Amino acid sequence: MKMSSRKTRLAAAILVAGALAVTTACSSGHSNSDGSKAGASKAPVKTTSISVGTAADSKGPAAAEPGAKKGGTVNMIDRDDFSHLDPAQIYMNYNAEVSLLFTRQLTGYKTSEDGSQKLVGDLATDTGTTTDGGKTWKFTLKDGVKWQDGSPITSADVKYSIERTYASFIKSGPTYIQGWLSGSDYRSAYEGPYGGKHLDAIQTPDDKTVVITFPEAHTDANFTLAMTGYGIVPQAHDTKEEYDKKPFSSGPYQITEHVTDRSLDLERNPNWDPATDPIRNAYPDKWHMAFGVQAQQSTERFMADNGDDKNTFSFHNQVHPTFIDQVKADEKLKPRTLEGLTPYVDYYYINNTRVKDQKVREALIKAFPHQQTRQLQGGTSYGDYATAYMSPTVLGYESYDPYGILKKPQGDPEAAKALLTQANAVGTSIVYAYNNTPLQQKVTEAIRDALEKAGFKFVPKPLDAKTYYDAIGQVNNEYDLYWGGWGADWPTGYTSLQPVWDGRAIADGASNYAHLNDPEINAAIDAAQKVADPVEQGKAWAAIDKKLQDKAVSIPDVYQRSLSLYGSGLGGVKFDTLAGLQSPLNIYVK
C-alpha cells in the first residue's frame, strides 16, 4: 500500500509458525511538516516471533490485561473522522483499528503479553483449512457469535458480506477476494447480492460452515480474510451507502451516535460474548472519539495531561516533530510514550526505464545520504535504516545490505564516483522529483549535495504535494529518482513485493513506480506465490528481495517508526505492530 499524507492503508506483520524472526513494529507518510530533529544511531531492530495459531489459540476470552478493571469512559482525539466504517470500504489502517471494536472477521490477530502475535480464528473456530494447496478454504463458525440485536451470526452472513463487496457503491476497500473469485473485471462478472443473485464459489452447506473455492490456489487467503475489508455485514441491517456511517455491531461495542467530522460514541454491545473472542478485551463502558485535533495540539494536550485528557489516547496523531526531542528527554512522559517500527518501508525509486545502466543505479545507492535525510525528517524517530525492500515486519524478511548502507549511512561519494567512472557515466543527469514543501526542499538539498559530490548532475523538479503520486505514477514520467513508501496489505511477502516490483503491473497509477520489468523477477514472483508452506514461501520472498538488491533496482531508505503519547489515566495502551497505531483492545481507565 502506498503512503500519502494521511492515507496509509492497513499493513500487517506476521511470521508464520514462529520459524523466522520479525520486528515488532502506519505512519503519516512523507512528512510535510517542518520538523527537524536529530538522533543517535539505533541499535539493531529487536525481533520477536509471530505465528499461525491453532484452534485452541482461537478460543476466547482474550488474555486479561494485568491490573485492568472495567468501567469508565475512554476518550480519543484525532485529526480526522474515520473516512469509512463500512468494512467493505475499509483499506486505511486507522479505519481498521477503530473497527476492531465493532466489526469481526473470519480470522484476525491476537497479541500475547510477550509481544508475540498470532493469526487466529475470530468468528471462525480456527484459521481455516485447505486440502488442495489453497484453492478451497473451509471455515467453521464458533457457537454463540451474535449480532448486536442478539440474532446469531451465520455462514449466510459471511457469504453475503463477501458478495456485497462487488456492489457498485463499494469503491474504497480491498479487491483481492473478488478478483481471485471472478477475475480482474469482477464487477462485470457479478453485480452483488441486491438483485437476488449469489456467488456459487461460496457455499454454505449449513449455518456454521463456509466453503470458498477459488479458480486457482491462494495459499494465504486466510490472511487476506483477516483484513477489515472482509468483515461481516448482516443482510437484515444492510443500509447500503448509509451503512458507512453506522455499521451494525458484531464486536464488543456498538455505535450510539456518529456526528460526521465531530464525534463518534460507542457503548457496550450486550450480545457480544467474550468467550467467543480471543482478540478483544472490553474494559471501558463507553468510548468518546473527537475529531479536528491537529498533531501539534494533541501533543501539547498529552504533555499537559489535564482533566479529561488524562483518559485520552489517539489512534493516529503522533508526537509533532517540533516536540520530539522534548518528549524523548522528559522522564515523566516515558511511561506513557509509545515508539515502534511500523510496517512501512520508504524507498527512493529509481526509474528503471530511464536509468538503464546498473552501474549508474549502484552509484546512486552508494551516494545516497540516508543519515542526512533521516536527520532532517526526525532522526531515529523517523525510521531505522533499511537493508531490504521488504519490511522487517513481513514473513521472510532478511537483512542483506550489499551496498553497505549501515556502514556508511551518510553515503560514499568516492565509491559512487568510481562506479560512474567504470560506466563512463560521470556527469550523468539525475532528474529528482519531490514534494514541494519546506521540509522536502531541505531534504532535496541534502540529496543534491551528495549526488553532486559523487559526480552526478542534479536536476530538481518540485511537484504539488496533492498530486505527487499522480505525477510519479505516470509510466512515461520525466523523472529519474523520487520518494515513495509501501507496506504489505497482509502479512506475507506477496503484497510487499508483487505490486511494487512485478513488471506485468506497470501502468499509469499502478504501484511499480520503478518501472521494473525483469523476467527473472517476474518468474520468481510467480513461483513464490505458489509455495504452499508459509515458511518456505517466506524464504522465497527473501530470495527475491536479495535479487532486487543485487540488481540495484531502487534505494531502500528507512523502516518507518512511530512516536506517540497518551493520558496518564489510562492503562493497557499498546502499539499495534500490525497497523502502526495505538491499539484500543486492552485500554482501561485506571
From TrEMBL:
GO biological process: peptide transport
Stored InterPro entries: Peptide/Ni-bd, SBP_5, SBP_5_dom
Gene Ontology CC, one term: periplasmic space
Pfam family, one: SBP_bac_5
Keywords from the named record: Signal
CDD domains, sorted: PBP2_clavulanate_OppA2 (cd08506)
PROSITE patterns cross-referenced by the UniProt entry: PROKAR_LIPOPROTEIN
Region forming the signal peptide: 1-27
Keyword NADP: no
Alphabetized GO MF terms: peptide transmembrane transporter activity
Region (Disordered): 52-72
Domain Solute-binding protein family, residue spans: 118-504
The protein, known as: Putative peptide ABC transporter substrate-binding protein
Lineage, broadest ranks: Bacteria, Bacillati, Actinomycetota, Actinomycetes, Kitasatosporales
